[in-house]
Protein 1
Amino acid sequence: MSQADSGATARELDPEDAKIVVLARSTRARVGAAEGAAVRDTDGRTYAAATVSLPSLRLSALQAAVAAAVSSGAPGLEAAAVVNTDGVEPGAESVAAVRDLGPDAPLLVADATGAVRAVLTS
């Protein structure tokens, strides 16, 4: 089960968590995607991705960011962030991708301004 804490703001975030929100936001803006996401692995490396919507392949931004981390040999995830227009929580499949690699990683959900609307935990 996940819990949502909707009282978080960018000012209350750990500086490293704030960085992945900024990275997710800039990735989304750069490609004009519906969502941007970023993850930080347990070695401190970050991976960012945007929504992939091709005729033969569809991935949420979170799924794509997790796939980038896995394909780069990430041992696990410390944190994840997703940014979309309204700060809407991601679907179950996207959350599951994060949980596969980081069962206890907080998942920051932010709107297009970067304001964190919720923090999902396991």
Note: Confidence is low (pLDDT under 50) at residues 6-11.
Protein 2
Amino acid sequence: MSETGLGRREMLGATGVAACGLALSACGSGGAEAKPNLKGRVLAKTADVPVGGGKLIEDLRVVVTQPTQGVFKAFSSACTHKGCQVSTPRDNVIRCACHGSEFATDSGKALKGPATAPLASFVVKVEGDGIVVA
């Protein structure tokens, strides 16, 4: 027992809880990150996003998709399992090379684990030939 009346296990447990409170991204958030504020930002040109696929914008950590002709979606490129960056979408699937998770290009929904949560989404609109965060 320490001077505080707590045993070794209690002290270690309290330390772990405090550490998680300071660094939530490392303790159980599944690698999910807060969405950056990209409002008004042009993410990509419509011509650069193929139907059934998409474009990975690495520096913004965003993936833009076109699941069907003229419909554009945008999602965080951080996999909800451990935060790895997903790959460029193909065949209407966004894949994470780290652990094999797959997500739908039309909704960001997890299709195959280990990820179970959907990718964080952004509302986008087309302005001229650009895909812009609304």
Note: The chain has a mean pLDDT of 81.
Protein 3
Amino acid sequence: MSSSNELWTLAEAPDQSGRTAVVTGSNTGIGLEVARGLARRGATVVLACRNDTAATRAKQDIEDSVPDADIRTTHIDIGSLTSIADCARRLHAELPAIDLLVNNAGVVAGTRTLTVDGFESDFGINFLGHFALTARLIDLLTAAPAGRVVSVGSLSHGKRNAALDFDDLQSEHSFGRLITYSRSKMASATFMVELQRRLGAAGARAMSVGAHPGGVRSTILRDQSLLTRIAYSDVVMTLARLVTQTPEQGALSILRAALDPAAAGAGFFGPAKRWGLVGPPVPVPVSPLAQDPGTGRRLWAVAEELTGVEFVIGTGDRPLRDDVPADRGRTAASPESAADSG
């Protein structure tokens, strides 16, 4: 077992045979590598993704690299409350318990767009969707011997301008690509801490933790334009490697949060080097703003109201409300949900 100052590796994580993990947005990038890492430790992994074809390819990819991996897929659009409810019902029908829920799917919206339920996409996908999913699965998580919820965050939640503005949570008046994203990740971190606070108060065995992957390299924007050819030139990419790492490396923080027996409730993990952008995963601070109990309670109440999902933590036998209209929370028509990583 690693101390906080030692190099943590996936190989030292406990065997996960007999345990079931659900990972959202796991068909590509960090989510795929988290799923692969869990499979390597023996877990049954459910790839919860929006793109069914990509999920099938990811399943095959993991099975090709991990002998005897037990990989399953299920459809979910984290930007749709109806899809979230449908997914939760399927998982209840298929699984007696969930040992790990990794809330990974996310989006960085370049412009202010809305989910099908009318939520600003960053806030709706990065926070509200995972709030609703966790609420609908909490009974399966508390039914497990040691259930764990991992919220995948961002180093940006610690920025000064990431403080939540309860008068403009959905950036109707102050949308900015990076500010809005940072605030959505602040909401996620605040939820992570408040969930642990409530799990503890309920005497539940489950635990809530978080992690951020640091700076992760991606070629998702590569095309034939001059600008991107420069951006992906050998010189620029060589310099970028000083402050970025591969998805497999970035996934280690999330895997440590999920698997380290020494992790504490509301603990947060991230890379150790170069301003928290690269390196082995270690415990790192959560923003003090995310730890404020008053903010946590207020955000929780807002999320319940917007999603129409009552988040009950108890013995796991109390059903959640299923009478919520599909358009609950809709403020404007939107032809489709913003794309996320799943």
Note: The two ends are 32 Å apart (CA to CA).
Protein 4
Amino acid sequence: MPTTVPTAPDGRAGIDASLVRRLIAAQFPEWSGLPVRPVEVDGWDNRTYRLGEDMTVRLPTAAGYVPAVAKECAWLPRLAPSLPVPIPTVLAQGAPGEGYPYPWSVRRWLPGEAATEERVADLGRFAADVAEFLLALHRCDTADGPGAGAHSWYRGASPAHYDDETRRCLAALDGRIDTVRATEVWQAALAAEWRGKPVWFHGDIAAGNLLVADGALAAVIDFGTSGTGDPACDLVIAWTMFHDDSREAFRRAVGQDDGAWARARGWALWKSLLTVAECTDPHDERIAVHLRVVEAVLADHARFA
């Protein structure tokens, strides 16, 4: 067997259902008779496959995502009892094998669909429920928790880690966005230094990681970028999913001081600038989405800064 998996054209480690079947048969033969099939909506950091009706197999697509496996296996069981909605339950941790070079995990299937405005019965209520989840997460015991760093892609740390990258994006997008106002937002984010005690953060509170059932928040998934530190990164959904009344509902429910919101605007700006700057196809639908986020962030800064 080869020691590495050839990289697929999409950069996701050549993972397919056949590999998953071989891994299960070799390491968890009690589940080898169960069908394996891709999930309908997959992520980038990990590939996920249904295993029977009640389980999933989750495999990192690159070395940078590997630290999340052990982290989630260790911490999700400790966090779950304190949270108002379900989060993933890890049933087993797999080892490299069958030509696949990374650790991986088997989890219990969580029912629900990725959040969209159309699937949510009341967006303001949903925003408040997301805020309730975040506040409960912030109250979880941080003793021995993983401090923000490379494993969290520096979520939970200062957005200054991405200063050079953001300024390159600002230069590249001059003429496409209001770079003067955007620079003001970024500088305000850097100036709003976090001095609080570390709390648990999720790191990627986004529509795709929020599951909806019967129009309401049903579960939160993908804690790969979680850790302990500054929770400002978890406020970005204020501009990526919420708007108008729902944004205000989220702001009221989640609280946080002016500095946290300034840093959150910086996190949102960095990600959207990077996405737009890296899109090589002018018709890529992500461009319009992230340009709207930039405009929303700039307007928010003008209103509250």
Note: The chain has a mean pLDDT of 94.
